[in-house]
Recover the amino acids of this structure.
């Protein structure tokens, strides 16, 4: 197939870089703004100030957790890191890599008949990057499961 992408060098990590940058920047900004407000309000007690800082840290932590997803491909397989879980797959377990129009992220159809969402490749605000990443992962999976290298 002439439109198949060149295989990237392994190991390769796919992640939504723009989305990640926005979430991490927003998390740090929220933490700093809430902390500054806590110390600028003169009527707050030390406990109230601490609760402001804790709330800012909690919101920042949630955004850091949401920026965690990635897909790491290496010679022996793929590691899918989603928000709260991580799963290691051998290349032979991946039957198909799907990113259909309207999908929020890539889905990996697996040999056991299940489908695994791979949040590390998501169109969000980086649609062209996600499409290219999905094509590259599909090409890697096809090459590894058919015995090519």
């Amino acid at each position: 197939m002439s439109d198949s992408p060149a295989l990237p060098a392994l190991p390769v990590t796919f992640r939504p870089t723009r989305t990640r940058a926005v979430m991490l920047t927003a998390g740090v900004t929220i933490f700093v703004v809430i902390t500054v407000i806590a110390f600028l309000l003169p009527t707050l007690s030390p406990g109230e100030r601490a609760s402001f800082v804790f709330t800012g840290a909690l919101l920042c932590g949630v955004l850091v957790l949401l920026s965690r997803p990635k897909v790491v491909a290496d010679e022996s397989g793929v590691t899918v890191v989603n928000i709260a879980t991580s799963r290691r797959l051998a290349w032979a377990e991946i039957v198909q890599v799907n990113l259909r129009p309207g999908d929020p992220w890539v889905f990996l159809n697996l040999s056991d008949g299940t489908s695994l969402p791979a949040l590390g490749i998501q169109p969000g605000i980086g649609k062209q990057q996600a499409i290219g990443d999905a094509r590259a992962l599909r090409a890697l999976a096809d090459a590894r499961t058919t015995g090519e290298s």
The helical segments are 17-40, 46-66, 127-145.
